[in-house]
Amino acid sequence: xxxxxxxxxxxxxxxxxxxxxxxxxxxxxxxxxxxxxxxxxxxxxxxxxxxxxxxxxxxxxxxxxxxxxxxxxxxxxxxxxxxxxxxxxxxxxxxxxxxxxxxxxxxxxxxxxxxxxxxxxxxxxxxxxxxxxxxxxxxxxxxxxxxxxxxxxxxxxxxxxxxxxxxxxxxxxxxxxxxxxxxxxxxxxxxxxxxxxxxxxxxxxxxxxxxxxxxxxxxxxxxxxxxxxxx
Length: 231
What we know:
- By secondary structure, the protein is mainly β.
- It contains 1 helix and 16 strands.
- It has one domain (28-225): outer membrane lipoprotein receptor (LolB), chain A.
- Helix content is 4%, strand content 51%.
- It is globular, with a radius of gyration of 23 Å.
């Protein structure tokens, strides 16, 4: 007599994974291949308040195909202040700096070299040579990279290199909309490096229209946009 095969037992349903209580912010990372939104070339002017003194600043953003240059110039009264310059390429994930410099006039006072072909990071002010994180930004390119990755309701995490030492993760926390602007805050990284607040205008190519680091009346600065950007 032919023996019947035993009936198959139905597969057990997978147990649901418990979710932790409370809100968990899902950060956007620069290497997560989000939709990238970069402004066209523009020149934006700002009022500067730094250490209790008034001044002015300008942000020059130039893009030509897959290359860019970004430059911040500042002046307090008649006195020029050190500027910042970032230059590099534009890829699917956004800005890819090749060189960042802190400027004294037209001279590079300190610089960071992003040696992407070698996968290395080096500095003019230090003999350190470090591995280059794929998504690393500099202190100035991080402003526009944040704008490119910004999504209302979500934090943004960038890896940022200074002019010496290991690159550090910068987490920009979403603080909400204020008068139509998107407000992000990065916590203080050290005693000498205060919080960094950035307000982006979604109606002006997500331009950073207000920035504040620390207390502009003591040991910090604030930038307030005063002109409509133009190509």
